[in-house]
Amino acid sequence: MKVKFVTFGCSRNQADTELMKGFCRHEIVDVNPDVTVVNTCFVKAETEKKILKLLHELEGKVVVAGCLAQARPQLIEAFPQHSFLGVNALERVNEAIEGQVVDVGPGNPDFCQDRVLANPLISIVPISDGCLGSCTYCCTKQARGNLKSRPVKSILKQFRQDLAKGVREFWLTGQDTGCYGFDINSSLPELLNLVTKLKGDFRVRVGMMNPEHALKLLPDLKDSFKSPKLYKFLHLPVQSGSDRVLKDMNRGYTVNDFIRLIDSFNGFTISTDVICGYPTETDSDWVRTIKFFKLVKPRVLNISRFYARPGTKASYLKQLPSRVSKDRSRELSKLYSEFSLKHNHSLIGSEVNVLVTEPGVGRDQYYRLVNVDSSPGVFVKAKIVSVGVHHLKAKPL
Description:
Blueprint: E1 2-7, H1 11-23, E2 27-28, E3 35-40, H2 45-57, E4 61-66, H3 67-71, H4 74-78, E5 83-85, H5 93-98, E6 102-103, E7 122-126, E8 128-129, H6 140-144, E9 148-149, H7 152-164, E10 169-173, H8 188-196, E11 203-206, H9 211-217, H10 220-224, E12 233-235, H11 243-249, H12 255-263, E13 269-276, H13 283-296, E14 300-305, H14 322-345, E15 351-358, E16 361-363, E17 369-372, E18 379-387, E19 392-396
């Protein structure tokens, strides 16, 4: 049979798809499939709407995998003709393709199995599943559950296997990489120190970590990031610039805590997230958020409008009008574009070391997107000659 894979969501979902493709014993195609495997995401309402629309439109056999399949059992009743695989049942993909399978139970996918990488130079390495948080707006825990850290030996085994296959860039991923190891008497800094001792010229991007847990890891985390094998990049979602809203969200830190954290990594590329229009967010709270971003000026900013997700505490609150979140999102987007472009212009003329992972595209040591004329798989020293809001353009030296 011909099988097509469609993936929504985060890098962990991408890793899950790569693993399912590795398990798949059928021909993998992009068009005219007999079976479509849809790896779903549950985080945002807009994404869920797209997925449901796709499920109604698809013809032929369909396998629904991922977080939405795990967290929304009513989908099984809505689409009784489909197979359903939860986040722990990826190894049953062939059974689901060839017959009728509904498995949203417990399990433990083995990412040391053969995978089909989307990019042969980049390996996504799940280091944990679930988290220790209880954020009032987040529904991911309904699918992924509490923290389950992956054993260090298994992670190092995947690194060694992929290095032997020519991988040059690794993405450590989890719902919260900052709490890695809390349940197995280990920690993220310990893992990073072991990973960076492996032989080879490669780079590692550390995925999103909750500021609450990152604060607990200082100064060990700072010491780990001294390794040149780690991109000088941190994804630390702040979500709001108002302490009152952060408390309502149950985030576990204050604005000053966050500022202290990023000040500890001076010069790093800081990526952060913000939610516009949380139900308890007043005009004064939003003014504090704008003031915060004018101060911090993160290099990467992911902006989301608040949408209540089923089963979360925030879904029971009185919601703000949609125009409020829309207006706030537009205001912050405009502000971000202005200070991002201004900062990038200041980089013109500077030299960078770029790991090229796609034809003409790579990342410098700060994980900034750089367009440079070079073939994939090599490090290139280059000078920045022009910039955009989200990228740099460089000329090889």
